[in-house]
Amino acid sequence: MCGIVGAIADRDVVPVLIEGLKRLEYRGYDSAGIAVLDGEQVRRVRRTGRVAEMESAAQSEGFRARLGIGHTRWATHGGVTEANAHPHVSFGELAVVHNGIIENHDEQREVLRAKGYAFESQTDTEVIAHLIHFHQSQGADLLAAVQKAVQELVGAYAIAVVSKREPGRLIAARMGCPLLVGLGEGENFIASDVSAILQATRQVIFLEEGDTAEITRESVRVFNAAGAAVERDVHMSDVSLASLELGPYRHFMQKEIHEQPRAIADTIEAVMDANAFNPLLFGADAENVLRDVEGVQILACGTSYYAGLTARYWIEAISGLPCSVEIASEYRYRKAVANPKHLIVTISQSGETLDTMEALKYAKSLGHDRTLSICNVPESAIPRASRLVYYTRAGAEIGVASTKAFTTQLVALFTLAATLAKLHGRLDVEQEGQYLDALRFLPGSVQHALNLEPQVTAWAERFAPKQHALFLGRGVHYPIALEGALKLKEISYIHAEAYPAGELKHGPLALVDAAMPVVVIAPNDALLEKVKSNMQEVRARGGELFVFTDEDSQFGPSEGVHVIRAPRHVGVLSPVVHAIPVQMLAYHAALARGTDVDKPRNLAKSVTVE
Ligand code: F6R
Question: Taking the mean position of all CA atoms in its chain, how far away is CA 386?
Answer without folding.
Answer: 17
